[in-house]
Specification:
7-stranded mixed β-sheet; mainly beta; 0% helix; 11 strands; 4-stranded antiparallel β-sheet
């Protein structure tokens, strides 16, 4: 059973930065793909970024050039560095895990088998 716990959310001003963390347990991280998704009130869950077990990455169109995903298998951690944040980035951010060896996707949330509880990111002045 893969377990995920997100942290690092909070309140930040427009133009600011945050680093989200996802700690993974129950399965060796090097064999798992991790995706970050977000959900704002009354909106569908949106794919933000993902990183495959071979470290290939994908990003949603709305965050390209602003967000960076990385992984530290030894520390069982996946990070999402978010820069130049705007109010439109306000949402609950979730990390998901998939044991698939296929390239990860940000288009299909159901590709991920396990999810964390989420961390709130609020961008406001």
């Amino acid at each position: 059973q893969v377990q995920l716990v997100e942290s690092g959310g909070g309140l930040v001003q427009p133009g600011g930065s945050l680093r989200l963390s996802c700690v993974v347990s129950g399965f060796p991280l090097e064999y798992v793909a991790i995706g970050w998704f977000r959900q704002a009130p009354e909106k569908e869950r949106e794919g933000v970024s993902c990183i495959s077990s071979d470290r290939n990455t994908n990003y949603g169109d709305s965050v390209k050039g602003r967000f960076t995903i990385s992984r530290d298998n030894a520390e069982h951690m996946v990070y999402l560095d978010m820069d130049n944040l705007s109010p439109e980035d306000t949402a609950v951010y979730y990390c998901g895990a998939s044991r698939s060896i296929a390239p990860c996707t940000v288009r299909v949330a159901s590709w991920y088998d396990y999810w964390g509880q989420g961390t709130q990111v609020t961008v406001s002045s």
